[in-house]
Design brief:
Elements lengths: L1 H28 L2 E2 L2 H10 L2 E7 L2 E6 L4 E5 L3 H10 L3 E5 L3 H40 L1 E2 L18 H15 L2 H4 L8 E5 L6 H12 L3 E5 L10 H15 L3 E6 L19 H14 L7 E7 L7 H4 L6 E4 L5 H12 L10 H6 L6 H17 L7 H13 L10 H20 L6 E5 L9 E4 L10 H22 L7 H16 L13 E2 L10 E2 L4 H28 L1 H14 L1 E3 H9 L2 H6 L18 H6 L1
Parallel strand pairs: 1-4, 2-5, 7-10, 7-11, 8-9, 9-10
Antiparallel strand pairs: 2-3, 3-4, 6-8, 12-13, 12-16, 14-15
Helix pairs in contact: 1-4, 4-8, 5-7, 8-9, 11-13, 13-14, 15-16, 15-19, 16-17, 16-18, 17-18
């Protein structure tokens, strides 16, 4: 009806404008009207060129071009008089009545067409609205496709237990209604990207074997106000005909963001209209409606409070990256779809990718399969997974990059410094790989893998982590007495850790257990924001951060000076082989350098030029 009223208003407005335009044109182009007496005078005393008869009206035209109009009482008498004066006589039929009738008929036809087109457009929009919902419908066992079930989901056992109750409600609602229990109307799945929120929602529908409506939050956001709200109403209207069913809205923060407060909030905004329609429809469920609303987001902090209250989204389920056991199960699920080498240790692969989400693990398996196929292998082995991991974390190997000999030597000492400091500290994670092959934005890398997944970090571990990061710059200063830009990433990471220790985790005696920075409350990360503080407190924090970084840097320098011979040997080996794994690194450390020095092997030491001559193993032997 709104479309019909709008189109009729436009039609009548156009009609009025057309009539006004014609009236203005008629006024500007109409002839001068004279009396019959004036016409007779002109006929007697002036030279007329032609007379045009249109009904009882006469249009006179002079030889000079002047034209005017009058009405004559007796046209026949006037005609005979004009013939005597030899004036041209022109007769035209008066068609004004026929023209008026034609315009009226055309106007009525256009008006009827406007009504018909408006009603047909309304019907088409209603059909498209229904089609919008039906196109997103996934029926159980549709097209013979295999449904996703809980067997295809791993790594989140707590979430599966929470959602099993929803499946039971959809399968057997009478079990809950008999004792007066009401199932949650909505569940909000929140977590970082790639943790399997969408997959989990489809698994619920697969387990319950009910229709599944799959939407995105952006599907409801349109340029025209009211379209999104209409779509919401159409979806819930159709869902009630398919109950029991599941409505899933992915990235609901696109439409469910927090509304503006105060008197300036506009109810005409498209997002606000759509959100209001969603809130009303979720409140419109009765206890007998077996419809469950699932939504996923990685920004729960920006959702409108009215959307998250009990009665709409009753439960919020956190979907976090899996632990070691969960990563192993996910790798087994994805590994069953590819050809793995016999005897491949899945535990070892799961151990080398801490923090990976389900999507990243699926990508890891696919990248490993691509690399194995590229090399012409019939199955995937551990080296393929390791290369795939390096490619995902650091990027593609930069084979075309050529480093000078000085840069390669500085890079070798840099990475060797990281490795030796990490091996010397008791709280550090074991070394996994040392490489000076450029990948992505990094020229080299010293990889460490923790023995177990860490849920908390001690002061000693974090301090050791900063010391390890400072080991690369310290090795360059000891070996070459200069500083390079290669330590940029290390310094940034070390400063971030030190800032967190002082400002967030309360690990400073001066600042004390007081939070000075806050993190982004969502799951997308973001920069930390310092809280309001006095200039004196800010100065104390800066001093504590600088002090902690300097202590760790001094400790790294001390360790490397004491083990300068090992640093030099490890750097030389890296220049030759470019990459060392954990076993090869342990073999190098196991070499008894003290016995080699005592045996007098040439070129084993250069005490006169060595910057660590006073604290290394050679000076101790001399004493």
């Amino acid at each position: 009806m709104a479309i019909l009223i709008r189109n009729l208003f436009i039609f009548f407005l156009f009609t009025v404008l057309l009539i006004l335009s014609y009236g203005i044109w008629k006024i500007e182009h109409r002839l001068r009207v004279v009396t019959y007496s004036e016409f007779r005078y002109c006929l007697t005393n002036h030279d007329l060129a032609a007379i045009t008869f249109i009904g009882n009206k006469v249009i006179a035209q002079h030889h000079a071009g002047d034209r005017y109009e009058t009405t004559v009482p007796n046209a026949e008498k006037l005609i005979s008089e004009l013939q005597e004066k030899n004036i041209q006589i022109i007769f035209k039929k008066d068609r004004s009545e026929q023209i008026f009738q034609g315009i009226a008929l055309l106007y009525i036809i256009l008006l009827v067409l406007t009504v018909i087109i408006s009603l047909s457009k309304k019907k088409r929009l209603e059909e498209e609205g229904n089609k919008f919902a039906s196109d997103k419908l996934i029926l159980p066992d549709s097209d013979g496709k295999q449904q996703v079930t809980f067997d295809d989901v791993a790594g989140i056992p707590e979430a599966l237990e929470e959602l099993q109750e929803i499946v039971n409600f959809l399968v057997n609602p009478d079990q809950y209604s008999q004792i007066g229990a009401v199932s949650p109307k909505g569940l909000l799945l929140q977590g970082p990207p790639g943790t399997g929120k969408t997959l989990l929602a489809r698994a619920i529908a697969g387990e319950a074997k009910v229709p599944f409506y799959n939407f995105s939050g952006s599907d409801f956001v349109e340029m025209f106000v009211g379209v999104g709200a209409s779509r919401v109403r159409d979806i819930f209207k159709e869902a009630k005909t398919k109950a029991p069913c599941i409505i899933f809205i992915d990235e609901i923060d696109a439409v469910g963001g927090r509304r503006a407060g105060g008197a300036t909030a506009s109810g005409q905004d498209e997002r606000s209209q759509t959100l209001n329609a969603l809130l009303v429809e979720m409140d419109g469920f009765t206890t007998s409606d077996t419809i469950v609303i699932l939504a996923a987001t990685n920004r729960p902090d920006i959702l409108d409070p009215a959307l998250r209250r009990p009665g709409r989204f009753d439960r919020q389920v956190n979907i976090l990256p899996p632990d070691l056991k969960g990563r192993k199960k996910i790798l087994q699920i994805h590994g069953a779809r590819v050809s793995l080498a016999p005897g491949l240790d899945i535990d070892k692969i799961a151990h080398m990718v801490p923090g990976f989400t389900g999507a990243e693990l699926a990508n890891l398996v696919n990248e490993a399969a691509l690399m194995a196929a590229r090399d012409g292998k019939s199955d995937i082995n551990y080296s393929d997974f390791e290369q795939a991991r390096d490619r995902i974390l650091m990027g593609v190997e930069r084979k075309g990059m050529i480093l000078s000999d000085d840069d390669r030597k500085a890079l070798a000492f840099h990475e060797a410094g990281h490795a030796i400091v990490a091996k010397s500290l008791p709280e550090a994670d074991p070394i996994h790989k040392i490489t000076i092959i450029p990948r992505g934005r990094a020229l080299g890398q010293t990889q460490q893998l923790s023995v177990t997944d860490r849920s908390s970090y001690s002061y000693e571990y974090l301090k050791s982590r900063i010391t390890i990061l400072m080991g690369g710059r310290a090795a360059e200063e000891i070996a070459f007495h200069r500083r390079t830009t290669g330590a940029q990433g290390d310094i940034i990471q070390a400063t971030e850790i030190a800032t967190n220790m002082i400002c967030k985790w309360g690990m400073s005696e001066v600042v004390g257990p007081q939070a000075m920075v806050v993190d982004d409350p969502g799951f997308l990360g973001g920069n930390m924001q310092r809280l309001e503080m006095s200039d004196k407190t800010s100065e104390s924090i800066d001093k504590e951060i600088k002090k902690l970084l300097q202590i760790c840097n001094d400790e790294a320098v001390t360790i490397l000076k004491q083990k300068y011979y090992l640093l030099k040997q490890l750097a030389d080996i890296l220049l030759q082989v470019e990459t060392l794994d954990d076993e090869e690194f342990e073999i190098i450390l196991a070499c008894n350098f003290k016995e080699r020095i005592e045996e007098g092997i040439e070129a084993t030491h250069q005490c006169q030029e060595c910057p660590a001559a006073d604290s290394c193993i050679h000076s101790k032997l001399k004493k």
